[in-house]
Amino acid sequence: MSLSVALTKGRLEKKTVEMLEKSGYGIESLQDKGRALVFQDSKKDIQYFLAKPNDVITYVEHGVADVGIVGKDTLMEGGKDYYELLDLNTGICKFILAGMPNNNPLEKVGHIKIGTKYPNVTAAYFHAKGMEPEIIKIDGSVELAPVLGLCDGIVDIMETGTTLKENGLVVFDDVCRISARVIVNKVSFKLKREEINALIQDLEKARD
Amino acid sequence: MNQIRIPQGMRDLISEECEKKEALKNRIEDVFASYGYRPLKTPAIEYLETFTNAYVDVKDEEMYKFFDQEGKTLALRTDMTVPIARMCASKFVNAKPPFRFRYCSDVFKVRHTFAGQRSEVTDCGIELIGCDSRSDLEVVAAALDTMKAIGVNDYELEIGNSEFFRSACAAVKLNDEQVKALASYIDRKSLVELQEYLQTLNLDEGAVSFFEELPMLGGKEEVLQKAEEVSFNDALKEEVKTLRNLYQDLKALGYEDHISFDFGKVPHLDYYTGIIFEGYVGNVGSSVLSGGRYDSLLKKFGRDLPACGFSVKLDALLDVLPMEKKTIIRVFYPKGKEVEALKKAKQLQKNGAVELVEAEVQEVEVKA
Predict the structure, then answer these.
(1) Inter-chain contact A63–B262, Cβ cutoff 8 Å?
(2) Do A70 and A123 belong together in one domain?
(3) Which of A23, B147, B363, B365 could be stapled to A202 by a disulfide with Cβ–Cβ 3.0 to 4.6 Å?
(4) Rounded distance between C-alpha atoms, residue A13 and residue A7, angstroms
(5) How far apart are CA A120 and CA A77, in angstroms?
(6) What is the least distance, in Å, from the CA of B278 to any CA of chain A?
């Protein structure tokens, strides 16, 4: 049976396409993609399409895509109705708690305000520490919020740390590691078990 | 202002969809009736307490709640099993089990906004109350007949056993919190987190590899063998044997083509107490039938009876079923010949639907 695979556009796209190529998949159309949205594998019975991270989850949850490749950051913030079968060990970065020097929210007495694009991740992190901050949802350039005094700290993704440093922020704690994951629609996993297991095994080999 | 919107998660159905849904409902109810199940109706509105009494972890945010005149909290029913359990303990208190009940009713759950999910769905199911696990075969056979009656060739019924997981947890003495966390990782087949979590539990090697294997212990008949191999004590082997025996019986009845197993199926541990199963059809992204054994639910309403049942979510299936073929006979008539036209129509009604059409014709005409 044919498989449909949703790939996350952008940063992860290149890395996943590389892994697929390494596994001997026919992904030429993905490398030279023009304006197309759906791509046929030239060697296997697989269709790929590119989507934004949150949409990858939505497509997989609805079964429109059998398999999705998406960052753990998006999975932690979004839905849960899928199987998460593999850590691709690529696209690695981490969630961190950062803020202005000498103003560690974890040591503050009283009301704490945290700015973030990831309210669910932030809430889970603080609740596990027995703390309950006020969470302020911010859509872009989260680093700006503590500089301007909107909040005591931020929970955000850090790759190299350069942006934080340039804005005079310091890291207080690592929240967790993030990497690309393979998610699978629950029904597809039952009805297309062989095809999906083969894909997972190939990706696992390409990873190791 | 024209109020034309409906609340999030709700759907209007047009006639073709209603016809499709009605035909599906009839096919399924015919199966239920043929096994001797009799219909029940319960109110759409129950006391919230009825549901919080039944489930340990009721998801509060998933319930539609409101108040009655006395300030008591009411809820729209989220399933039919709980109201039937309640009814069993009250209206049937003087009746002798076993009971075979069927239902087809709308149930309500608040779904995520803009996630494309429905908050109101029709649940069509059966409950066999008062029979222990020896009746699992009968219920699973009914489930397989139901899957067939849906009318899609590409279907599968996947069977698991919640006791397999529970017995393993008890053997390695995990506490409730650990069991819950582990069940969540295994049921979601969240392999990465499962491995990380197992590291923190200090279990011996056999147990660790058992729990690591569990999410992937799924597939056709041969998975029973694999499950036996990872079983680290006799109690676990016994649980595998239960499923193997069930499979042999189903095979003897000719059902084997559409059966598979998943030992990593462990949802709602506070609810299911034995076999547990889900039905899938091609091109529908979620399970369309689900059920299992729940021997401890009725006790919570004061009537300690074992029970097993399942239900089909009709709405999920509508997209993959073809339109019902309906032939409508049309009776055309000129102005002033309404009585003659209606007379003709009434003769024809025994053959099917008849529609009256006023038209520029001389005499009453019939067209199929």
Answers:
(1) no
(2) no
(3) A23
(4) 6
(5) 6
(6) 10
Q: How far apart are CA A80 and CA A84, in angstroms?
A: 9
**Residues of A in Cβ contact (< 8 Å) with B156:** 190-191
CB contact under 8 A, B156 and A190: yes
Q: Retrieve residue B43's tokens.
A: 């109110």
Which of B61, B190, B263 has the highest number of chain A CBs within 10 A, making it the mutation to test binding with A?
B190
Q: Is the pLDDT of residue B2 over 80?
A: no
Q: Spell out which residues of chain A touch residue B262, defining contact as CB-CB under 8 Å.
A: 190
The rounded distance, in Å, linking the Cα atoms of A41 and A47 is: 6
List the single residue in A with minimal CA-CA distance to B280: A187
Same domain, A74 and A8: yes
User: How many domains does chain A divide into?
Assistant: 2
CA B133 to chain centre: 19
What is the predicted ipTM? 0.79
Q: What is the pLDDT of residues A64-118, one digit of tens each?
A: 999 999 999 999 998 788 999 999 999 999 999 999 998 999 999 999 999 999 9
What does chain A come to in residues? 208
Smallest CA-to-CA distance from B111 within B181, B31, B185, B9 is with: B9
B196 to chain A, any CB pair closer than 8 A? The answer is no
Predicted TM-score (pTM) of this structure: 0.87
CATH number at residue A196: 3.40.190.10
| A76 lies in the same domain as A112 | no
User: Quick one: A127 and A195 in the same domain?
Assistant: no
Query: Residue B131: what residue type?
Result: C
Phi-psi region of B205 (alpha: psi -120 to 50; beta: other; left: phi over 0): alpha
Is A145 in the same domain as A203? no
Residue B285 contacts A, CB cutoff 8 Å = yes
Answer yes or no: do A111 and A163 share one domain: yes
Give start and end residues of each alpha helix (H) in A23-96.
28-31, 53-62, 72-77
Same domain, A7 and A87: yes
Token digits for B17? Answer: 């969809």
Residue B327: pLDDT band with limits 50, 70, 90: confident
Q: Is the pLDDT of residue B114 over 90?
A: no
pLDDT at B1 over 70: no
Q: For strand B155-161 and strand B99-108, is the pairing parallel, antiparallel, or unpaired? A: unpaired
Q: Which domain holds residue A46?
A: 3-91+179-207
Q: Which tops the pLDDT comparison, B65 or B8? A: B65
Give the three-state DSSP class for B351. Answer: helix
The answer to whether A206 and A182 are in contact (CB under 8 A) is: no
Domains and CATH numbers, chain B: 8-154+285-326 (3.30.930.10), 157-281 (3.30.930.10), 328-367 (no CATH)
Chain A CB contacts of B283 below 8 Å: 63
Same domain, A76 and A128: no
Helices B191-199 & B205-213 angle (0-180, nearest 10): 160
Helix axes B222-230, B205-213, angle to 10 degrees: 160
Q: What is the mean pLDDT of residues A157-186?
A: 94
Distances (CA, A) of B351 to B327, B341, B354: 10, 16, 9
CB contact under 8 A, B218 and A185: no
